[in-house]
Amino acid sequence: MTPAQDIKPVAGLERAVRNSWDQNNLSNSPTAFSLAAQQQSLSSSFGGSFARRGSVAENMKPLKPFNTEDVKILLLENVNKSGQDILRKQGYQVEALTTSLPEDQLIEKIRDVQVIGIRSKTKLTDRVLAEAKNLLVIGCFCIGTNQVDLEYAARQGIAVFNSPFANSRSVAELVIAEIITLARQLGDRSNEMHRGTWNKVSAKCWEIRGKTLGIIGYGHIGSQLSVLAEAMGMKVIYYDVVTLMAMGTARQVPTLNDLLDEADFVTLHVPDLPETRNMMSTAQFDKMKHGAYLINASRGSVVDIPALIKAMNAGKIAGAALDVYPNEPAANGDYFNGSLNTWGDDLRQLHNIILTPHIGGSTEEAQRAIGIEVVGEALVRYINQGITVGSVNMPETQLRSLTLEEENTARVIYIHKNVPGVLRKVNEILGDHNVDKQISDSKGDVAYLMADISNVQVGEIKDLYERLEALSSRILTRVLY
Ligand SMILES: NC(=O)C1=CN([C@@H]2O[C@H](COP(=O)(O)OP(=O)(O)OC[C@H]3O[C@@H](n4cnc5c(N)ncnc54)[C@H](O)[C@@H]3O)[C@@H](O)[C@H]2O)C=CC1
Ligand SMILES: O=C(O)CCC(=O)C(=O)O
User: Fold this and answer.
1) pLDDT, position 358
2) Do residue 149 and residue 286 come from a single domain?
3) What range defines the domain where residue 47 resides?
4) Pocket of ligand 1 (CB under 6 A)
5) How far are the Cα atoms of 63, 279, 385, 464, 467 from residue 479, in angstroms, in the given order?
6) Separation of 162 CA from ligand 1 center, angstroms?
7) Could you tell me the pTM of the whole model?
8) Is 429 within the bounds of a domain?
9) Which run of H or of E encompasses 439?
10) C-alpha pair distances (Å), 303 with each of 210, 219, 341
11) pLDDT in tens, 384-401
C-alpha cells in the first residue's frame, strides 16, 4: 500500500492511530521485517512459552501503527537489557531508568508515552492513568499486577501484560535456600562471625529432611517449590482455594488451619487480594506449631508484621524470612527503617530473621526471560498487531497474521464499552469494505473487536477511523496497515 502523501495526522489522535496514514509507511521502514525476524528467533530460543501465545507466519505482513521512531517508551525499575534491546531494534524511542518514580514525576512522564514498562514498585493508580493520554499498553516485567489499577486501565483502553512464570523458579530456589538457612540459624551465625564472635552451637538447629513444608498458594511458584522440597526429603502439604493436582507425593489439605497445625515451615505464595491481606496474623501464628518457621516471598500485605514480631519475641515462631513488605522503597539506598514502616526497627532487632529487599525474582535468568517475554511476546505484538493474548485486563483476542499478499488490507481495532448494539453499528461502518475476518470478545465493562478489512485505500482509513471514533461506545480506535 502506498500511503497518500496528502493525508496528515489528525491532532489529538496520538493515542489512537497517529501516523497510521502518515507518509512513512512502515512497510517501507528499514525495521519493517524485524518483528518477524525477532519473533522467529524468540520462538527458537524461548520456544515453549512463545508457542503458547501463537506462532509466527513466515509470510507475515508487518503491521506497524506508527512511525516507529515516534513510539515513546518509558521503562522504569531497571528493566533488563534483553527487553530494551528488542524495543530499540524496533526503532522505538526508549528511555530506561533504574528506579521507580515518585507520583508527580511519573505523571509528568507518563503523559508523553505510548508504552510504559514497570516492575513491582511503580504504582499505576487511577490518578496516574487518568493523565496517561497517549498510553496504549503497560508491560509489568514481573508476575504480580497488583500495582496497576487493571480495571481502570481497561476502561481507558490500556492493555496490561505481565510475565506469568518466568521468575517462578528463582523464587522457589530462594525459598529452598531460606528453609535451610532458618533451620540452621545461618543468618545469626554469619552475623556473629562478621562481628568477630565464634559461636559453635547445635541447639535448635535442624536438618530439613523429614520436616513438613506447608505451602499456602499452590500455583506456579508453590508447585515448583513442592518438587524441590520433596527432592530434599521434606514432606509437602499445601492449601489453596482451588483444588489442584499434587506434585509428587504432596498432599492438599482442606483448610488453612489444617496446614498450620501440621507444618514445620509455612511459606506463602498467594497474590495480593482482599482475601489474602493479613492472612497470617495473631490467630494464625497461635495455630502454628511451637518453634515453626514462616517465609513470605509473595506480597507484603499478606503477613501482619507486628503480629509476627510478637510471635517471634514470644518464641512461638523460631525464625522467619521476609522478602516483601507493606511499604518498599522506590530505589536502592538506606531506606529500610522505622520511617518507611513503623515496626521496621523492631523487625531488624529479631534473631533468626532473614530480610531481603524483594529479590525473589531477581536473577539474571529470570530478568532476561521476563524482558524477552514481556517485550517480544506481548508489547511488540500488541503495538504492531493488536493481539491481546496474555493480557491480564483485556479479553484475549487473536487474528491470524496478514500475509504480504494482502496488500490493501487494514486491521481495525475498536475497544469499546460492553453495551448492546455496538457490533451492529461498527459493522455498518466496516461493511463498506470487505470484512475478511473479525473477532470480538468482552471482559467486564470493556469489549475488544479486531477486524481485517480488505480493498481499503489509504485515503479511506481516516474516514473509517473518524466514523468509529464518533460512536458513543468508543473507548479507543486503532487502524493498522
Ligand atoms: N518476591 C518476589 O520477587 C516475587 C513475588 N511473587 C508473588 O508471588 C505470588 C504468587 O505467584 P505465582 O505462584 O506465580 O502465582 P499463581 O497465580 O500461579 O498462584 C497463586 C495461587 O494462590 C492461590 N490463592 C489465591 N488466593 C488464595 C487464598 N486466599 N488462599 C489460598 N490460596 C490462594 C491461587 O488459587 C493460586 O493457585 C504473586 O502473586 C506475586 O505477588 C511473584 C514473583 C516474584
Ligand atoms: O522483580 C520484581 O521487581 C518483582 C518481582 C515480583 O514480585 C513479581 O514478579 O511479582
Assistant:
1) 98
2) no
3) 35-166+364-398
4) 143-144, 165, 167-168, 171, 216-222, 239-242, 269-273, 275-276, 297-299, 323-324, 358, 360-361
5) 10, 46, 10, 9, 12
6) 14
7) 0.88
8) no
9) strand 434-443
10) 26, 19, 13
11) 999 999 999 999 999 998
